[in-house]
Amino acid sequence: MRTSTTAVHDRLFDALSPAVRALAVRGMVRSYRKNTVLVSEGEAGDSTFVLLTGRVQIYSNDAFGHEIVYDIVKAGDYFAEMNLDGGPRTASAMTLEASVCSVVDAPEVRAHLSHPPYANEFMAHVTRRARDATIQARELALKDVYGRVVSTLESQHGPASAGTPITLLSITHQTIASRVGASREMVSRLLKDLERGGYVALGVRQITLMRKLPARW
Predict the structure, then answer these.
(1) What is the pLDDT of residue 4?
(2) N or C: which end of the chain has fewer CB within 10 A?
(3) CA proximity to 188, closest of 172, 168, 206, 204
(4) Could you tell me what percent of the chain has a pLDDT over 70?
């Protein structure tokens, strides 16, 4: 088992839940700049990343510049864990800000999973990811763009009630477009229409839900 001997690393590990900490201490601590691609879809790889500080975007894109974002990973969570079958990476991962990760290779992950409590936590984590992927696939298949925009906005903080506006911070039209699989232009048109209808107020990197969004538009 490889552990950090620095006080800084110890403090980073201490902020983790017991199960995630037990996984993190098996890895090598590495720092990454903003917009660093950590994992590329389709490539081989057997490392799992525990995010100690920063944020990481999990996404797919194509040769035409289309992009869909599956998740934003925050400190205290881990990602790129679906690699134990030896298959290719199913998504890419990129830092959204300067980040620090503990990178755990496959043999150390397997050693971690030899302890039943940690194996149970790991399987629960993978199950949650699979459930979220299923929900996202259903949204893409069964809802139109407007319905997916509503789901994305309300998933940030739930539906707004009468008289209680909710402001969503650090969210842009491009962020929403990447989450719903649509163009930024289409999302912007929908949000402008909703603003004219008094349902939302648009600001710089923020959207305020003024009242419950209509089911259809």
Answers:
(1) 44
(2) N
(3) 172
(4) 93
Q: Residue 75 has what DSSP assignment? A: T
Residue 168 bridge partners (DSSP): 207
Q: For the chain, what percent of residues have pLDDT higher than 90? A: 61
Residue 62 pLDDT exceeds 90: no
Between strands 166-169 and 206-209, the pairing is: antiparallel
Alpha carbon distance 180, 67 (integer Å): 10
Selection from 113, 49, 112 nearest residue 81 by Cα: 49
Domains parsed from the chain with CATH numbers: 7-142 (2.60.120.10), 145-209 (1.10.10.10)
Amino acid at 199: Y
CA–CA separation, 36 vs 54, rounded Å? Answer: 12
Task: Using a cut of 0.85, tell me whether the model's pTM lies above it.
Answer: no
